[in-house]
Specification:
Layout (H helix, E strand, L loop, with lengths): L1 E12 L6 E12 L3 E5 L6 H8 L7 E6 L2 E2 L5 H11 E5 L10 H11 L6 H10 L15 H14 L4 E5 L7 H17 L3 E6 L2 H4 L4 E6 L2 E5 L3
Parallel strand pairs: 3-8, 3-9, 6-7, 7-8
Antiparallel strand pairs: 1-2, 1-4, 4-5, 9-10
Helix pairs in contact: 3-5, 4-5, 5-6
């Protein structure tokens, strides 16, 4: 089943002589449960594509469908709610709240949606990611690898259908990167979530089920083909 789809996705910046096509007529389908790596150099359009898939930025032209829903047909407030319920984000900078402890950071998206956590499910995530002894710690007292684990746990906690990860290992050393990616893969399989990760690291990309290559805003390679 297709969970993510783009049709003729276009994102332009500037106009006339300064026009830049960050995305140029991108057609893409991602199946439910896939772990996909999007690979490209800096400026290739991979971050723009991820932001479009997550509804964080609106396209110049084209459509994005998440679980069959044309997300850009939604008003801003509707899109915010839809995104919070369907998509979990893992950013390179972690984006944790420094005044909250680890557990509070993990369940934050659930509270924002006015719900109470599924304690058994959250406990399973915490144990899978090896955070059970860190729950009372403030996030700025953790190592980079631990902070990234908290960010992954937070992304998973609200049971989203899709995890979008933006260079999730960019600030980590190679061993911690392998550990974090291994955990991300395990959690996606265990909790049946689709993962789309952007990276410039070929070794990290090899851990995915499928690798999509992007250059100058166009898809130039897909290991599914």
């Amino acid at each position: 089943m297709v969970i993510l789809e783009t049709k003729k996705l276009q994102k332009n910046y500037g106009s006339g002589d300064t026009l830049v096509k960050a995305l140029d007529q991108v057609d893409l389908q991602i199946q439910n449960g896939e772990f996909v790596a999007i690979v490209g150099t800096s400026g290739s359009g991979k971050s723009t594509l991820l932001h479009m898939l997550g509804g964080l930025d609106r396209p110049t032209e084209g459509k994005v469908f998440v679980d069959g829903k044309d997300i850009f047909s939604l008003k801003d407030e509707e899109l915010t709610i839809f995104r919070r319920r369907k998509i979990g984000f893992v950013f390179q900078q972690y984006n944790l709240i420094p005044t909250m402890n680890v557990y509070e950071n993990i369940v934050l998206p659930i509270g924002l949606d006015g719900n109470t956590p599924d304690e058994d499910y959250v406990d399973e995530i915490i144990k899978t990611l090896g955070l059970e002894n860190k729950l009372e710690n403030l996030s700025n007292n953790l190592s980079g690898g631990q902070q990234q684990r908290v960010a992954i746990a937070r992304a998973l906690s609200s049971k989203p259908a899709i995890i979008l990860a933006d260079e999730p290992t960019g600030n980590l050393d190679s061993k911690t990167s392998q550990d974090v990616l291994g955990l991300l893969k395990i959690t996606s399989e265990r909790f049946k979530q689709t993962i789309v990760m952007i990276t410039h690291d070929e070794e990290i990309a090899q851990m995915a089920d499928r690798i999509i290559r992007i250059e100058d805003g166009k898809i130039v390679g897909d290991s599914n083909d």
